[in-house]
Structure prediction request, 197 residues.
Amino acid sequence: MWRRNGYHMTTATPMRQEAETAAYDLLKSTRGRDGLSRCELPIDPFSIADTLGLKVMRIPLEPDVSGMLAKYPGQDPEVYVNVTDSEVRQRFSCAHEIGHFIKRGSSPGSKDEEWGYIDRRGPSAGRGTSPDEIYANQFAAALLMPEERIKTLEDEGMSPVSMALAFNVSLEAMTHRIDNIRSSPHVAGTTPDVVSE
Prediction:
């Protein structure tokens, strides 16, 4: 679950590498036919959720809860996004919950029918200490702000403010993402010898 108190991202770690790669692979399979450096912006996490078979509902949630992934026995997973949040927060929350879904390795109709879960974010997650929340935040950032696309826009001279508008994310999320890419480039398997444009 993504709460209003922000997120924490660090330099490349195995967890960040895993989140970046998972987001990169998902984008390539759903959006990157012509390469992520020229993909259409903004990335639509709601469309991606639909492609994955996730039903997304925008409803009022607790005041400090922005999103939730729920899975009940015998039902497909559902994503709940707080309708009272700003559009950029709703988009990040949806992408964050997709990250939880991907991390679980679940898919609708899989053999998880005998159990249920609700991913809720505890207080430690906002401080960047919960591995599941850190993964989901890093996944969401990589999904909504693909490294290749950021580098292309930087090469074209676009400012972080303009990029935040183009990606339809908060300026805080955009600057965190740019800083993380600069501090540990090519973590998503996007090294020049891997990507062919």
